[in-house]
Protein: Signal peptidase complex subunit 1
Organism: Gopherus evgoodei
Amino acid sequence: MLDVFGSILTQMDYKGQKLAEQIFRGIILVSAVIGFIYGYIAEQFDWAVYIVMAGFALSCLLTLPPWPMYRCNGSLSKSREQKTRSHQRED
């Protein structure tokens, strides 16, 4: 049963990490602004907190797993390995 977990890809490239961080920050910011405005209009601080918590949960769902959109560019270590292999072939 543990072999199933070994087949899951768990790596992100550097551009994917940057994209995940930007998405995370954007969702948190938007949910905080919406939560503050709604909580102010409704005069309910609870709803402001719930909206921010929902935004946090959504951002975690979108950014914590290594989705394929975060692995599009290849990793820096792979490109370094390819360069060293090509230099070895030239010698």
Summary: The mean pLDDT is 82.
